[in-house]
Amino acid sequence: MSKKTIAIACDHGGFELKELLKAELLKKGFEPIDLGTNSTDSVDYPEYGQLMGATIAAGEAAFGVLICGSGIGISIAANRNPAVRAAVCHSGLTAKLARQHNNANVLALGARLIGVETALDCLEQFLTTDFEGGGRHQRRVDQLGH
Ligand code: RB5
Predict the structure, then answer these.
(1) Domain ranges of the chain
(2) What is the Å distance from ligand 1's center to 71 Cα?
C-alpha cells in the first residue's frame, strides 16, 4: 500500500462533496480508492461506513475520508471496525487535533453542515498533520484497542 493511497466513501448526502474531495486528492498527488456511492440516489450509510472499515482493516489504505449528511452515521458505522478511528470534524482545527491527539485514520465530514472551504481545510489539516505520539496520546490511543 502506498502512503498516498486514500479510501473515500459517502452516502447520497455526501456524493457531491465526495467528488470534489476526490478531485482535490488527485490534484495533491494522492491515489483515491473510491468506495462509492456514485450518485445522489438514496442509499444506506452503514454499508459505506462498513466498506471503509473493511478497506482500512485489510490494509488497502492507511487513511480514509467519509462523507454523509452529518458525518455522524457513516462514522459510527466505520468505527464499529476496530481498525478505524474515524473523527467527525467541522473545522481545520478539529481535523488537526484528530490527527495530533487521536491518531485518527479516517476523516468524517457532514456535507449538509459545512461548506466546501471548511471541508477543504479539514482535508488539508488531516493530510498534513502527524500524530504527536509518545506519552499520554499514545497511551490513550492504545487504550482504544487494536
Ligand atoms: C441521509 O439522509 C442522512 O441521514 C445521512 O446522510 C447522515 O446524515 C446520517 O448520519
Answers:
(1) 5-143
(2) 8
